[in-house]
Amino acid sequence: MNAWHKLSVTEAVSLLATDVEQGLSVNEAKNRLTRYGQNKLRKGKRFSALVIFVSQFKSLVIWVLIGAAAVSAALGETVDGIAIIAIVILNAIIGFIQEYRAEKAAAALARLTAPHCRVVRGGHSVVVDATEIVPGDILLLEGGDLVAADARLIQTSVLRINEASLTGESQAVGKFTDGLPMETPLADRKNMAFLGTSVTGGTGRALVVNTGMETELGHIAKLLETAESGETPLKRRLDRVARLLLWACFGVVALIFSLGLLRGIAPFELFLSAVSLAVAAIPEGLPAVVTVALALGVQRMVQRNALVRHMASVETLGCAEVICTDKTGTLTMGEMTARKLITSDSLYRITGEGYGTEGAFFSGNVENLPSKSPELFALLYASAACNDAELTLIDGRSEVVGDPTEGALLVVAAKGGITRAAVETQMPRLAAVPFDSDRKRMTVIRNRENHPWAFVKGAPEVILSRCSLIRTDQGVRALTENDRSRLLQANALLAHDALRVLAVAERSLDNFSFEESMAVNDTEIEQGLTLLGLIGLQDPPRGEAKEAVIKCKRAGIKTVMITGDHPDTARAIGHELGILGKGDEVLVGAELDRLDDEALKQCVSKVSVYARVTAEHKLRIVRAWKARGVVVAMTGDGVNDAPALKEASIGIAMGITGTEVTKGAADIIITDDNFATIVAAVEEGRGIYDNIAKTLAYLLSGNTGELIVMLSAVLLGWPLPLLPLHLLWINLVTDGLPALALATDPIEPGVLNRPPRRSQDALFNREFLTLTLFTGLLTAGVTLGVFAYELYIDNSLEQARDAAFTALVIAELLRAFGARSEQRTIWQIGLFSNMRLFLIVEVSFALQLAIHHVPMLQTLFQIEPVSLNQCVSWIGVGFIPLIVLELRKIIRRPRAKKD
């Protein structure tokens, strides 16, 4: 792209061979349309529904399960095979729906272009389709227009453009036509208008310099295409689990088959047992568990003001180590607000946030009513009188039409009981001298009791230099040098707190008739003013944002603010919210440009606030964090946030102020634009991961116990304690429904009081494996003990198998209650706090008893009816693993507290 902001108007016009007054001819416009192409953004790649559906079967664990289903069917266990296939298909359908709804960001970008616009063609102003705009066209701009292309401004009259969606700048930008230095950041290129931004006031002419994919918005679309989301930590962990289980199953089959042959067991019986055990070792309920856990998390997130577009992203957010957040509208209200007022004698603090008209005025700790303070009332009245904005009520919410700064003045006036409508009725407008970036002031002349009266607002140093009087509660008096010095000092203090300061003044124009005032130079009108006071405005931090940042620190999550705003504003907000701490740095976009990717990777952990950044900067910051192996979340609402959102481990868009582009690139949409909701999502994500991890531990512990039982029997020369059908039944009754119930467990308290887990950490860490093996040994121990007792005391193989089978099922079902937490005991959690699990265990017990007393099932499972004494004995034995595991928690608790 050419540095159009660096060129003068004459140079730009000459380079594009056009005419400021005549514009392009119709034929030349057609020729250039052929050369440059239509002014529209390229749509992203589209995949067919079939391709998306087939891609759901890429996971290794899915193919392991399909293999298990095939083996089950070959063994005659058709129902078990159908159940596994049903789980696989359900998982694929859910994944398909999620992915099919994604990848719409580029299409949303295209909708940001203006459908029609006004240009000069052949010396005439004409309305054309925005797609037919070409470089060299002269674009006509006025309030309410959506800018149709990137353009170099050539004429302006009080032109102001809202560029928040592109640059992150919270205030409308005043525009001019002068050339700027080459290194000027995007947000400071005040002689340019950009595609997708909107004109809030004034008029202008602009020379179109770039269209379509060559615009800044097109550049963002290209970045969006290059951004890659990558695999989620949960998917990587589950794939590793699948590979481990696959090799473990092969090993089990080979070992048992080999040992069995050496012992002379019939090959067919041995094959059935070995393969059945291998199938039982695979937790086929795991995809269903993951799906249920994530789906329930999604439902809970809706209740906490978050919409999840990709289910796995909730769990990913749970292991986030860094949250990169936009400032405007996320950490702040996104609405300019008057925070402080200074009059001749008093400093007022104003309560209330955003555009809401509820609020009060406090001097110290004392509330002041404007109706009882003449100087305060005069200041508020003039703020509404010298104003072009409107305050409207839409769906019960106050909205500003016009410049946000002027809207903030209307809001503060409304808090004092003064409305724009009342001002217009009491003092009809006679004339106005609009704001100009060179004059730095604005004047509105009104009819006050048949006398012209001027209300003026602008930069404090400019207004003060034109004031000779000051209003107090006692009346108007001369403005002394001491007053002037004190007010300039107050202005500096407000500016230091990142407040935008305006001075407000008034003047009687009795010496001018209305007709004369229109002819008199505005500098004559704006002299001898009476100063009413100073107003400090700011896009205020959200009330709950500071507490949310504190929660993030407690949870071991670093909060990084990335904004297009001025560095001073960003620094002030960073300090106020606690984002900037000791040793933390602030980095400006121009400084970031001087760092290569490696240098940025090295210093990114030290920077907590970025200011004056572009879309490309945000993308580089996210990539730098990811290069360090960090799970990074990125929030935003503007178009310039979209590429970084897509690249981040987890992209979070704002639902109220967010553009369609940003929402399309995001994984989660926050419906209340509240940073605190993101922290709630982190809590939810950690809870979901905990549920998945403890359910997997429960599943694998049971499967390990079964493996140990069968291997021990073969090594000891015993008959096989469990038949193939027993293994498949155990897999169905103890692994299926109880595991799903564990996945629905409530989130444990205190999940935000621990550091995030590293994305590189394996799910099978030392503690996980130790607990799994210990639990498996306990379960296998009681099962083998019962089997040996019945086999050698009662000398009945059928009775021994019956006892081992039932004791193992009971032990697994009871152990589900203890599997709900690694630290807290059953009594601390509450036995009935997960009623699903309680009911499922009861039903499973009933099914186990049923197969002992239904003749057809007795024959099928080769078991006998159980007596009451047997039932009590086996239940007692089944309690042993649960009791030991609960005692282990109690013994380990002091050590955990010490750590």
From TrEMBL:
GO molecular function, one term: ATP hydrolysis activity
A UniProt-annotated Pfam family: Cation_ATPase_N
EC top class named in words: hydrolase
Domain Cation-transporting P-type ATPase N-terminal: 3-77
Transmembrane segments: 50-75, 81-97, 244-265, 271-296, 696-720, 768-788, 837-855, 867-887
Membrane topology label: Multi-pass membrane protein
EC number: 3.6.3.8
A GO cellular-component term linked to this record: plasma membrane
Alphabetized UniProt keyword annotations: ATP-binding, Cell membrane, Hydrolase, Membrane, Nucleotide-binding, Translocase, Transmembrane, Transmembrane helix
Iron-sulfur listed as a keyword: no
Subcellular location: Cell membrane
SMART domains in the record: Cation_ATPase_N (SM00831)
Chief localization: membrane
UniProt xrefs under PANTHER family: CATION TRANSPORTING ATPASE, SODIUM/POTASSIUM-TRANSPORTING ATPASE SUBUNIT ALPHA
NCBIfam families: ATPase_P-type (TIGR01494)
Sequence similarity: Belongs to the cation transport ATPase (P-type) (TC 3.A.3) family. Type IIA subfamily.
Protein name as it appears in the record: ATPase, P-type (Transporting), HAD superfamily, subfamily IC
